[in-house]
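User: Hey, my collaborator sent me this sequence without any context and asked if I could get a structure. I don't really work with proteins. Can you help?
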Amino acid sequence: MNACYQQIADKLERDKGINCRIMQDDTRPATLATAKRFDTGYTIYYIPVNAIARIMATPDLKPLSDLLCLICAYLYQVVKIDYYRDYCYVQSTYSTIEDWINEDDEGEGEEYRDEQLRKLELIKSFGDMFLAIIKKPFSAKNFRKVMVAYGQSFCYDTYFANVAGEIEKLVIDYPKRSIYDSIPKGYYAFDESGNIHIEQYLSFYWSANDRFREVFFDMVNNDLNESGEQIEPLALQWFDTPQQQEQHHFDYEPRLFALIAELIDFLTDYDYDSQHHE
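Assistant: No problem. I've predicted the 3D structure and written it out in structure-token form, which is a compact way to encode the shape of the chain:
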């Protein structure tokens, strides 16, 4: 049996890039199952909060900021994307940067260090305030109401309206689906060099356009480059009953990651566009 299993597993991996495992879950005894990964492209999906801070600081953009708050609430509460002011990977990265600044006695002087620390305090204070906003109970009904208000506002943008509309469809189709629902417990083996976990490449963070950008991304890239296997969403097909054809279909994951990428692009434009700077 083991020899037959190994032959099947090797052939599926070689010919179709599909993993075959002997697995079980809460409803099935040990059985053959096949798994196909969703390819995230080894991309870092970090959603910049600084852009939202700038939008919220402009009263005329309130319809936009209201909609962004609800989108972020959905991503935080339902999708379960980590936020940089909770205890998480990105939070620990900022914490390490702060420790380095405090310990740097031979840098560019006390005045420069104090300026850096003040900036970090702003990052933390707004981050905590925004976290309280996106923790407020999320409602698909309220999402529709805010979408309508945004559509009637002068700050309406066709590109962002399309992104928000597709996110609303995702909310309707998957009202309780988390990205972690696509990761079976125990599927990924421990890697001595460290697995790349979802929270390391999918998270809220502060900004791609501030004084900490270079050191922040150097830390993240160096850390991930030294890590081993990347944990990615999976589509499973169980063979506890006869199966007639391959059924590794992805719908939620490609829609989610594509929309997050478009949201990041939109917010990054605000992050860099000088007309939105203080």
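In plain terms: Residues 160 and 266 are 7 Å apart (CA to CA). You can pass these tokens on to your collaborator as they are.
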